[in-house]
Amino acid sequence: MAETISQRQLRNDNAAIMRRVAAGESFVVTSNGIPVANVTPVENSRYRSTDEVIETWRNLPPIDYEQFRADLDLLVDQDPTPRV
Predict the structure, then answer these.
(1) What is the pTM of this model?
(2) Nearest to 20, CA basis, from 38, 39, 1
C-alpha cells in the first residue's frame, strides 16, 4: 500500500523520498489533503545494462543476411524515387 505524503513533504524531503522510490516504495501525494499524484518506481524490465542485453542475445540464432534483405524488400517500399 502506498504511503500518503503531502506536497510539502515531497518538496522538503525530495532526496530521501526518491531513494525510497528507487528501493521500490510508492507514495500518494496530496495537496490540501486531496490526492493529486502517485509517485511509483518505474518498471525495472524496461532498463537493462549493456552486459545483460549482450548476454540475452548471445544465444540467439545467427541472422541470414540475404534472407533478412529479401524479407525487408517484401514488406517495405525502399524505392528512393520521391512520391508525387
Answers:
(1) 0.52
(2) 39
